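for the recovery benchmark. tokens below, seq after
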């Protein structure tokens, strides 16, 4: 007799007792269950229930969209370079198709005509007087991308500097939440005042300064910090990022040095991809110890995670806009699993 046999609900008390003893005896023989489990005392309830009743599945599985889930965006890597008349920025190692690349491209002097690589999008290009100019670009990585991106000052050999940061989990359909630029002259540079509309944004502060090397703003993770040129033709470029946990005014950051000269700071807030809020009704088998939640696209399983039996919801992401996901959930107890429940979810833009 199979250990998963379930008693018929119409059997009488004596029949149930006889059947239970018979089933338990078979389990003892097949699996050498300790003698202490041979009674129906409350202390042995879970062990005997597993052998006589099927583990029931959860129910009511549903998925809804969450926009701006904190910790969705992660840094793949960053590179930097300098040049004269041309700035060639290498794609960071580990970049994958669908990642969003953000580039800072600066030059000494004013807004000399600048050529950008195919597939790159200009956010803004600004100058601090005629001393230093900085531009910000974004690009969605593809499988066929070249290994570097050249930015060329048309007909000029002016000093250039900058860097590229690659991020996973950014909304490729609409990556920039807000953007701002601040310019000034002095020993201290201050980031622009901005208000983020999406929680979970990644802020990137890119700094440029004539004839000086300002470090990335305080309170940020350093991405790059390089000097282009020498002596009076030089300029310093640096960048740092920080993750926001909520929408609203973003922190104002500063960076300082001993030299008073023209400076410029670009701040870009990158918008995260949506996540899925998965909810369900608990299994009626109160001796279950957990759940397994699986996410797949078509026949390809993308993730499987074990969860406590005390929870009836989970946040899963980031999720790609336009993709349709299938979620499956089942209850567990030791090596036993229930049948699964499933729900499908198509992700739309935030």
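predicted aa per position
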């Amino acid at each position: 007799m199979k250990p998963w046999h379930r008693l018929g609900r119409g059997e009488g008390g004596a029949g149930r007792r006889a059947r239970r003893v018979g089933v338990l005896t078979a389990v003892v023989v097949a699996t050498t269950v300790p003698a202490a489990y041979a009674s129906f005392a409350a202390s042995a309830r879970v062990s005997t229930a597993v052998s006589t009743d099927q583990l029931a599945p959860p129910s009511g599985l549903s998925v809804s969209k969450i926009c701006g889930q904190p910790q969705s965006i992660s840094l793949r890597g960053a590179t930097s370079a300098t040049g004269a008349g041309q700035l060639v920025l290498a794609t960071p190692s580990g970049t994958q198709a669908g990642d969003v690349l953000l580039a800072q491209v600066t030059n000494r002097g004013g807004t000399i005509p600048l050529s950008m690589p195919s597939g790159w999008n200009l956010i803004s290009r600004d100058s601090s007087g005629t001393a230093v100019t900085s531009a910000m670009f974004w690009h969605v990585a593809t499988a066929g991308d070249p290994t570097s991106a050249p930015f060329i000052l048309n007909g000029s050999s002016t000093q250039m500097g900058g860097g590229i940061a690659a991020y996973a989990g950014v909304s490729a359909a609409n990556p920039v939440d807000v953007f701002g630029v601040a310019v000034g002259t002095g020993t201290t540079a201050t980031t622009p005042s901005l208000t983020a509309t999406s929680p979970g944004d990644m802020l990137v502060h890119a700094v440029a300064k004539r004839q000086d090397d300002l470090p990335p703003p305080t309170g940020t993770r350093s991405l790059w910090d390089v000097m282009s040129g020498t002596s009076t033709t030089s300029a310093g470029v640096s960048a740092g990022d920080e993750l926001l946990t909520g929408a609203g005014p973003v922190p104002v950051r500063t960076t300082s040095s001993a030299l008073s000269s023209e400076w410029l700071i670009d701040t870009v807030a990158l918008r995260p991809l949506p996540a899925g809020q998965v909810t369900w009704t608990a299994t009626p088998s109160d001796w279950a110890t957990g759940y397994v939640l699986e996410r797949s696209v078509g026949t390809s399983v993308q993730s499987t995670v074990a969860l406590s039996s005390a929870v009836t919801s989970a946040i899963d992401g980031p999720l790609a806009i336009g993709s349709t996901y299938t979620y499956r959930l089942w209850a567990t107890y030791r090596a036993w699993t229930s049948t699964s429940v499933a729900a499908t979810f198509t992700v739309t833009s935030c």
